[in-house]
Amino acid sequence: MLLTVVSICAGLAFAQLPVDSEVAAGIARIKAIDNHAHPVSAAAHDTEYDALPVESLEASTEPVRTRAGSPLLIDAWRQLFGYQYNDFAPDHVRDLEQRKKKLKDEKGNHYPEWVLDQLGIEVMLANRVAMGPGIQPPRFLWVPFEDALMFPLNNSSLAAENSDRKSFFALEERLLKRYLTECGFSAAPASFDDYLQKVVTGTLERHKRGGAVAVKFEAAYLRSLDFGDTSKSEAARIYGAARNQPIAGESYKKLQDFLLRYIASECGRLGMAVHFHVDAGGGGYFNVGGANPLLLEPLFNDPKLRRANFLMLHGGWPFTREVTALLTKPNVYTDFSSQTFMNYPRAVSQVIREWLEYAPEKVLFATDAYPFSEEMSWEEAAWLANTTGRQALGLALTEMLHDGEITRERASELARMVLHDNARNLYKLK
After folding, report:
1. For residues 296 and 322, is the Cβ–Cβ distance under 8 A?
2. 3-state helix, strand, coil in the chain (%, to 5)
């Protein structure tokens, strides 16, 4: 009985380990590469920070950390903008808004870079429909959205499933029309080969020329991630038979499955990584089970797609152990974006530790900075996620150090890998 009590107490003491000061100092010095974010440009009324903005969704229950009135928001204001108060009094918030506006006016197009400087972020991968003023290389690298290319037919049946998908499919159809126009078409071409070569490949090649280092799929907001292996002849038959009429069900899914694999193959040829939203997403209608990363395993196992590098954004939360197992695939990576503003550092640290004990060269730092509201825009979200992410990494390394799994030298090496080198190697950055 005494031995049991001692063991429990030892476990509790271990769980409360603070970040080792030397580890923390080393992490703070590293200029990070942020693998995933949605920065807002310096343009007025910028709306291109996401193809599927979550603010259009019906209300759902927010995590405690990001709810209105969170004290963490005051911490972000204090560190970024010199906020001098400990409350949300209207006159104090108005003072903050004026301070931010003045700063943006002073910095102009350099304001987004200024934000990165405050956070110790060297490069941010910008998930955007298009880049914009102040969101430019070398500090910002482009990750465009390609979901629209998977839905070239009449989507009315899919849009009717719920209010969120109604909003999302309208946005996807608008983006596809933009891509078609850029390829010289007013509508999807009659020939399936023309659609593949002139629209899909043409769009991907244009994005590559525009500086894209990866492409992003938000498909989990639109359908399940179980992408089958449809033959080209079957996909062409479905495309030709249903071009001008509503289609849903298994037939349309087969066409989407083929197009996703075609896009992934082309990205492998072009040297662009393929990012998937793999996480419990926003909105009360989001299908969490449909975002299970294990659904992607047949895609990862396809020999025809081994030239493509896949990255599971957000670490698959809540399926983080499934992600650990999938990191055994030679071309599969993950990051811990989103978790770092939704969850507390201790919980995130346990996820990071498991990944570092398994495949440390495949774990990337990211914030998922996003303009959620006037109060918590992408700057505040980036500060919260950056602060939590570095603290969580420090906790994970401290516990590994405490358990004798790594040396201090290895702890420094792992910190550098996660915060910088793994992303540099994946995207072949100079």
Report:
1. no
2. 55, 10, 35
Beta partners for residue 121, in sequence order: 32
Q: Which residue has the tokens 């580890």?
A: 23
Rounded Cα distance between 280 and 290, Å, is: 9
User: Can you read off the two tokens belonging to residue 34?
Assistant: 């942020």
Q: What are the backbone angles phi and psi of residue 242, rounded to the nearest 5°? A: -125, 25
Neighbouring C-beta atoms of residue 337, cutoff 10 Å: 28
- Cβ neighbours of 192 (radius 10 Å): 21
Q: What SS3 state is found at 245?
A: coil
> Amino acid identity, residue 26?
G
DSSP string, 265-333: HHHHHHT-EEEEE-S--SSTT--SGGG-GGGGHHHHT-GGGTTS-EEEEGGGTT-HHHHHHHTTSTTEE
- Under 8 Å between Cβ of 394 and 27: yes
Is the model's pTM score more than 0.90?
A: yes
CA distances from 129 to 83, 213, 272 (A): 32, 14, 16
Residue with tokens 């914030």: 367
Counting Cα atoms < 13 Å in the Cβ hemisphere of 14 gives 15
Tokens 């999302």 correspond to 168
User: Mean pLDDT of successive 10-residue segments in the chain (430 residues)?
Assistant: 38 67 98 98 93 86 88 96 95 95 96 98 98 98 98 93 94 98 96 98 98 98 97 96 77 97 98 97 92 98 97 97 98 97 96 98 98 93 98 98 98 98 96
Report d(CA 112, CA 121) in Å as an integer. Answer: 11
Strands of 112-172, DSSP E: 121-127, 140-143
